[in-house]
Design goal:
Blueprint lengths: L17 H25 L3 H5 L11 H10 L5 H32 L5 H11 L8 H10 L6 H5 L6 H14 L2 H9 L4 H12 L1 H17 L2 H6 L8 H8 L7 H35 L2
Helix pairs in contact: 1-14, 3-14, 4-8, 4-11, 4-13, 5-8, 11-14, 13-14
Membrane topology: Multi-pass membrane protein
Keywords: Cell membrane, Membrane, Transmembrane, Transmembrane helix, Transport
Main location: membrane
Length: 286
C-alpha cells in the first residue's frame, strides 16, 4: 500500500483577468464621478449649471465661486472649516485613547462584571442617536455648553463601536503570555498598555482614527441643533446655510462642498494603505 505525501504550500496571489480589472476600473469611475461632477459645477457659471445637456468639462470660475462662498456675511465658512477641524481632531484623538484603553481592559484584564458591561456597550449600538437628542440637549443646557464646540465634542469622546472594535482586535493581536510576562517584570497596567498594547494595534488605531474623523467631520444633526443661530458653525451646518433660502445657487453650494471634501480626500489618500492593512489584519485574525 503506497503512501502519498502532500506538501503544504502558502497560497499564491492569483493574477486578475482583464474582466476583473475592467470591473474594478468601472467601480472606481462610478465612485469618483459624484466628486468630479461636484468639481464641474463648482467651476461653472449659473448658465452652465442650467444648460441642457449638462457640461462635463470643468469651467474657469472656481476662484470666483470660492470667493463668494468665503465672503458671504451670514455663512462664516472659514470659521466653520476651522471648527470642524478642531472638533474632528479632538474627537478622533480622544476616541483612540479612550476606546483603546477600554478595549484593553475588556480584552486582557479580569474584573467582576466584565462580560455584562461589554454586553451593555454592545446594546447601546442598537439605540438610534435620534432618541437621545432631547436628553443630550437638556444635559448640555445644564452645563451651559449649548452653542459652543464643547457640546459637539463631548458626546463623541468615546464610542461603543470603537470600544468593541478595539476589544476584538486586542484580544487576538496581543497574546496573554506577553501581558503576563510584562507583569512579572514589574510593569504596571498603564505601562503594559502604553509599551506593549499600543505598538501592536497601530493598524487598528489607523482604521478607527480614519473612520472617526470622517464621521465627526460629516456630522450634521447634532451640530445643527446645538449650534443653531451661532456665528461658529461646523462645515456641514455652513453648507446647509448655503443651500437655504428661496433660491439656491448650486455653484456656491457645490464649491463649498468641494472645499469641505478636500480634507477627507487628502486624509484617505494618506491613510488609505493603513486602512486596508488594518481591515485585512482584522479579517485574518483567528
Amino acid at each position: 500500500m503506497s503512501t502519498h505525501r502532500f506538501a503544504l504550500r502558502a497560497p499564491q496571489d492569483t493574477p486578475g483577468t482583464w474582466k476583473t480589472y475592467t470591473g474594478l476600473v468601472l467601480i472606481m469611475l462610478l465612485s469618483a464621478f459624484p466628486v468630479y461632477w461636484m468639481f464641474v459645477i463648482a467651476t461653472s457659471t449659473d448658465e452652465a449649471v442650467t444648460k441642457m445637456p449638462p457640461s462635463i468639462i470643468p469651467g474657469n470660475q472656481l476662484m470666483v465661486n470660492l470667493n463668494e462662498v468665503f465672503t458671504l456675511q451670514d455663512v462664516y465658512f472659514t470659521a466653520s472649516l476651522i471648527n470642524s477641524f478642531i472638533t474632528a481632531t479632538t474627537i478622533t484623538l480622544a476616541t483612540l485613547f479612550f476606546c483603546s484603553l477600554a478595549g484593553f481592559a475588556f480584552a486582557k484584564l479580569r474584573f467582576r462584571g466584565r462580560n455584562a458591561l461589554m454586553v451593555v456597550v454592545i446594546l447601546t449600538l442598537t439605540v438610534p442617536n435620534q432618541l437621545g437628542v432631547v436628553a443630550l440637549y437638556i444635559v448640555m443646557g445644564k452645563l451651559q455648553w449649548n452653542g459652543t464646540l464643547l457640546a459637539v465634542i463631548a458626546p463623541g469622546l468615546v464610542s461603543a463601536f470603537g470600544v468593541f472594535y478595539m476589544r476584538q482586535f486586542i484580544a487576538h493581536a496581543v497574546p496573554d503570555e506577553l501581558v503576563e510576562s510584562a507583569r512579572i517584570d514589574g510593569a504596571l497596567t498603564l505601562r503594559v498598555y502604553w509599551n506593549i498594547v499600543l505598538p501592536a494595534i497601530r493598524p487598528a488605531l489607523a482604521v478607527l482614527g480614519l473612520l472617526t474623523f470622517v464621521m465627526a467631520w460629516n456630522d450634521f444633526q447634532w451640530p445643527l441643533i446645538t449650534l443653531n443661530g451661532t456665528e461658529f458653525p461646523t462645515s456641514m451646518v455652513a453648507l446647509s446655510d448655503l443651500a437655504s433660502g428661496n433660491y439656491v445657487i448650486y455653484r456656491r453650494v457645490l464649491a463649498g462642498a468641494f472645499v469641505a471634501t478636500v480634507p477627507l480626500i487628502i486624509l484617505l489618500l494618506i491613510g488609505g494603505r493603513q486602512l486596508v492593512r488594518g481591515i485585512m489584519e482584522g479579517a485574518v485574525k483567528s
